[in-house]
Amino acid sequence: MSRNVQGIVAVIFIVLGLSFIATTAVLYLEFQDAGWFTFAAFYSHLFIFFPTFGILALCAFYMPACALLDLYWHHVRHGPARFAFATFLLIAVSMGVSSMLVTGVPAVWWLKPETLNADRGSPAGCTAPQCKRLSVMESVEDVRAVSSHRVGLSPFVRECVTDQLMELPAEQIQPRHCFVTKTKQTAEQCCFAQKLFTEDLTKLYESERGNHSVTGVVHAKLLPMKIFFLLMILAIGILLALWRRTIDKHYQSYTGHIERGLLIGALAMLLWPVSNHGFLQSSSVLYGRSGEGIYATISPVLSFMFAAWALLLVVFFFRRHERDIEAAGKIGGGIASAVAIMKYDVIIDFATRYLGSGADIMGLSALAVLLVLCFVALYAGNPERGLRRKSKPEPESTPNEAANTSGQTF
To answer: What are the angstrom distances between the C-alpha of 375 and each of 46, 141, 157, 366?
Structure first.
């Protein structure tokens, strides 16, 4: 494998990793006296996942990415041109998606600390239960307080758009805690308060550019890198699965490193959709349906894509000596995926409690232990040892395989 290829991939991955750290670092520096950890936990899919498991995924996918780039550079017909086109396409999509995500209803931390602290609710200076809505920070802190003592906030997510052809469900009429007023309200009353919260937050953000936080500006600049990272990881996994035999042929000495990296990287990436849906659950009890945008619409699609992608990697790359181990790995992956689908609501509730707005020292410590174990598993030992299969090897491709199959995969 070319050292130049390894150097190019290393530079790209280091830049991505530094961008992950930068956003969280700026959040801490700007909000260290204004509840920075509340925001970090609430938006854990941004501020906690990327500088931890996002970097783990970069390390895990380093060798697979090097093999893929080297393959296209040296063994695929018109490989450099095809690879360059795909890269520019991912960059363009990343820029387009990020431009859509930084518009619409602002995140709370898009406002600078002074602006958030100056907000006194509506009417200004009111206290519960007289408020039409509480101050922004008091509402966010209430979500944090409640979610840190119970598993999930799904009972407090209110349906603000009702079916006119059906009777109102009992849960729509029954008063429940509303986080933007800190009182028990019906769904209609809480939806009104959430709409007011969203409108006032938007007005604060749009009224003056001086209200914009440095963290929000940095996030907008670096968001394309996060989107590019997610798309790149998906593309690497899919292309390696499609080119598996060719990879085995030309990079046999790296096969163990590639398989280990893909499996650990898949595990790391599965935490992103889980923490992301935990964020969406916490966000919905503040903004309500009026705060939903394109991000809430595409998130289920992204989650399905990552679940299918992880299963694809298990099926194609969980290959050891005995056939029964290979079969067990595939069956186990299928069972895990089925459980995740059937109990997804429960998983989201636990994600909100331990990885999201309710995260505490116990949950983050467990996350840190898992992170360390993954790094140890990634770099400890020799993954090539014992890699030779006892079963009959797969037939090798002909010398012209890459040229003959160049039209079958990108």
So the answer is: 21, 34, 37, 14
393: in domain: no
Beta bridge partners of 178: 183
- 91 within domain boundaries: yes
Quick check: helix, strand or coil at residue 305?
A: helix
* Global pTM value: 0.83
Long-range contacts of 93-96 (CB under 8 A, 24+ apart): 93/227, 93/231, 94/224, 94/225, 94/227, 94/228, 94/231, 95/224
Split into its structural domains, the chain has a count of: 1
Give a yes or no: residue 241 inside a domain.
yes
Q: Give, in order, the Cα–Cα distances in Å from 261 to each of 125, 240, 265, 352.
A: 54, 12, 6, 28
CA-CA distance, 140 to 182, in Å (whole number)? Answer: 11
| Other beta carbons within 10 Å of 221 | 14
Q: Could you tell me the sign of the dihedral formed by the alpha carbons of 74, 78, 84, 89, in that order? A: negative
For residue 331, the surrounding DSSP H or E stretch is helix 323-342
- Which of 120, 144, 128 is CA-nearest to residue 181? 128
Whether residue 195 lies inside any domain: the answer is: yes
Domain of residue 65: give its range: 1-161+170-384
Over the stretch 280-339, which tens digit does the pLDDT of each residue have?
A: 889 999 988 755 667 777 777 787 788 788 777 776 665 543 444 455 455 455 545 555
318: left (phi over 0), alpha (psi -120 to 50) or beta: beta
Report residue 321 as tokens: 């000596």
- CA separation for the pair 184, 189 (Å, rounded): 9
With vertex at residue 272, the alpha carbon angle to CA 268 and CA 274, rounded to the nearest 5 degrees, is 110
